[in-house]
Design a protein that fits this description.
The complex is a heterodimer. Chain A has ten helices and no strands. Chain A is an all-alpha fold. The N and C termini of chain A lie far apart (38 Å). By secondary structure, chain B is mainly α. In chain B, strand 1 and strand 2 form a beta hairpin. Chain B is rod-shaped. Classes of the chains: A mainly alpha, B mainly alpha. Chains A and B meet through helix 2, helix 3, helix 5, helix 6 and helix 7 of A and helix 1, helix 3 and helix 4 of B.
């Protein structure tokens, strides 16, 4: 039976390196995926993911176990990414929209995206063309919207955990996610154009 | 979009995530049952979540993780640092945590040097024999020899003890061993 995260953390703290290796292997893809979504550069994302685990090991004593191990790891990855982005001035992007308030132009469409993505959106994005559009659309989002989308859609983090990780109230989690999705959807519909993407109709 | 739909827009996103209360769920589902537009919006939200999640996962999956854990493990168990590195770190720590002690001992050392060096120098100067004083006098006990002093030109002086003309025998040179009596004064 596989040991749970907390057990592995405790064993790592006592100097059991094999236990720590198991934690690394369990979360390496998530840490990398998250760094990649934020940094858009595979090499940098790989470096950040490794650095994050090194930091985790260094501060293992500070992990209290009141949140999930991943929530904790995520915070470290996110901070490292933000540091990196600040250092490379070209990546700095202004946040232009506040969370609150209903944007009138957001998500004016209904049903277009689901029609375009077909009955199997997971399969659809494996097509290169759509993956590229997706990448471009994500890159257009303000940082905080990217961040919350990645945490929710890649990691499936609950609103409770998102609130803790992002240090915002649950109500703001809900509205920020809503706005992030509305923007993403608008961008995707624009990128996908009026006509259906080839081969995306019926699967 | 009518007013009712507008009020459900944000809630719909949370509903798609399964993050609404039982009461809200009831309200949303009631509205959905009578609103095809909002049903289409819900379908969009689900398609978006599925495609974004799937996209992000496929991006991460495409990477090679074969050496990942090894690289991390190497970094958390670093090799013992080299001697120079340890000295450097040691010195830095001394400067950081014992600065006052270091500074005061450096000052003491500087003051000691400032006093001691001229003193020692002066002592050394006064006790060292000057070249002129190497040979102060030459006393001959044998009345049959007499000294002949020759300046060699290279700063050395050669003193020869020569038999006086009335006695027979060879001359016997005395070399001053290369000491430079620059004045050559005896």
């Amino acid at each position: 039976m596989e040991a749970d995260d907390l057990t592995l953390v405790k064993r790592s703290r006592q100097g059991d390196q094999e236990a720590f290796r198991q934690l690394v292997e369990r979360y390496q893809k998530k840490a990398f995926g998250q760094a990649l979504a934020m940094l858009k550069d595979r090499d940098e994302a790989m470096d950040v993911a490794q650095e994050a685990f090194v930091k985790v090991y260094k501060y293992l004593d500070q992990f209290k176990g009141d949140s999930s191990f991943y929530t904790w790891l995520y915070r470290i990855v996110a901070n490292l990414c933000v540091d990196k982005m600040r250092r490379s001035a070209s990546q700095v992007r202004e946040e232009v929209t506040p969370d609150e308030g209903m944007g009138q132009d957001e998500s004016a469409t209904s049903g277009i995206l689901s029609t375009k993505l077909g009955s199997n959106p997971q399969k659809a994005v494996l097509r290169q063309e759509l993956a590229k559009k997706m990448e471009e659309a994500l890159a257009q989002l303000p940082e905080k919207h990217q961040e919350i989308l990645v945490l929710r859609e890649l990691e499936g983090m609950s609103y409770e955990d998102l609130s803790r990780v992002l240090k915002i109230p649950k109500g703001t989690v809900m509205s920020r996610l809503f706005h992030a999705r509305a923007k993403m959807q608008k961008l995707l519909v624009e990128y996908l154009g009026e006509k259906q993407v080839e081969g995306l109709g019926e699967e | 979009m009518d007013k009712a739909c507008q009020s459900y827009r944000m809630l719909l996103s949370a509903y798609a995530d399964g993050e609404v209360s039982a009461k809200e769920r009831g309200q949303v589902e009631l509205h959905l049952s009578s609103c095809p537009d909002c049903r289409a919006r819900l379908a969009d939200l689900k398609a978006l979540s599925a495609s974004v999640g799937s996209h992000l996962r496929s991006q991460a999956e495409a990477a090679d993780f074969s050496g990942f854990a090894d690289a991390v493990m190497r970094k958390i168990t670093p090799e013992r640092p080299s001697l120079t590195e340890r000295l450097r770190i040691g010195w830095q720590e001394i400067l950081t945590y014992h600065r006052t002690a270091v500074v005061s001992s450096l000052v003491t050392a500087a003051v000691t040097l400032a006093i001691a060096v001229p003193l020692v120098y002066r002592l050394a100067e006064s006790s060292a024999p000057s070249p002129e004083m190497i040979v102060k006098s030459l006393r001959l006990e044998d009345p049959n020899v007499q000294p002949v002093v020759m300046n060699m030109g290279d700063g050395r002086t050669l003193i020869m003890l020569v038999n006086r003309p009335e006695s027979e025998g060879s001359s016997e040179p005395v070399d001053l061993g290369g000491k430079p009596p620059s004045g050559g004064e005896l």
